[in-house]
């Protein structure tokens, strides 16, 4: 596929996502149909389904964007704690800059579907966290008697719990502060 075709596909996918989020915010997830989204994005239904297998899969795209930001934030230097904080801060910054999609995901009660911890996207996130924790073990920063998979899953689940509560109750602490507290608690158990 040429670069031009790839860019056009990416723009179409982004337009579908943007229009879907706008409609979800206006009407609520359940009141919006695929036909509504395709009309707003000025595309055919076939084009929608080329990019998203279902209406709920629009939220997976949100997850892909956040995971990309998180992975890009891990530049590989620093302690395990510094690296994890950078990743979670990057996620918080992105989500706080785009709060409505996260809130719509929680309101639609499809957050659990967007997690799908077996998806490639979530496996990448979990693997990055596990790699950082393994480096922390190797350096002596973190203890090694806790199963690595369980520790990585604790960080990942803490992240999702914070996003859910922040999206549902935005008037409290910032997402960044919630994530920092969650990571403090988890790391205290791993030191």
TrEMBL record:
Residues 33-52 bind DNA. Residues 10-70 form the HTH tetR-type domain. The keyword Transcription regulation applies. InterPro entries: DNA-bd_HTH_TetR-type_CS (IPR023772), Homeodomain-like_sf (IPR009057), HTH-type_TetR-like_transc_reg (IPR050109), HTH_TetR (IPR001647), Tet_transcr_reg_TetR-rel_C_sf (IPR036271), TetR_C_44 (IPR049444). Keywords: DNA-binding, Transcription, Transcription regulation. The keyword tRNA-binding does not apply. It holds the Pfam family TetR_N. GO terms for molecular function: DNA-binding transcription factor activity; transcription cis-regulatory region binding. It comes from the Bacteria. SUPFAM superfamilies: Homeodomain-like, Tetracyclin repressor-like, C-terminal domain. Coiled coil: none annotated. PANTHER family: HTH-TYPE TRANSCRIPTIONAL REGULATOR BETI (PTHR30055:SF234), HTH-TYPE TRANSCRIPTIONAL REGULATOR RUTR (PTHR30055). This is HTH-type transcriptional repressor Bm3R1. The gene is bm3R1.
């Amino acid at each position: 596929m040429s670069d031009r075709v790839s860019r056009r596909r990416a723009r179409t996918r982004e337009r579908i996502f943007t229009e879907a989020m706008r409609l979800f915010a206006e009407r609520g997830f359940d009141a919006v149909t695929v036909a509504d989204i395709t009309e707003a994005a000025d595309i055919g239904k076939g084009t929608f389904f080329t990019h998203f297998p279902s209406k709920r899969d629009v939220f997976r795209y949100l997850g892909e964007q956040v995971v990309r930001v998180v992975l890009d934030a891990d530049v590989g230097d620093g302690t395990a704690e510094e690296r994890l904080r950078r990743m979670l801060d990057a996620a918080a910054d992105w989500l706080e800059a785009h709060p409505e999609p996260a809130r719509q995901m929680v309101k639609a009660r499809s957050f659990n579907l967007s997690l799908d911890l077996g998806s490639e996207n979530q496996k990448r996130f979990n693997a990055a966290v596990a790699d950082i924790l393994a480096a922390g073990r190797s350096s002596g920063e973190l203890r090694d008697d806790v199963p690595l998979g369980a520790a990585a899953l604790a960080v990942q689940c803490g992240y999702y719990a914070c996003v859910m509560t922040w999206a549902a109750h935005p008037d409290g602490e910032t997402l960044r502060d919630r994530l920092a507290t969650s990571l403090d608690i988890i790391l205290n158990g791993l030191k």
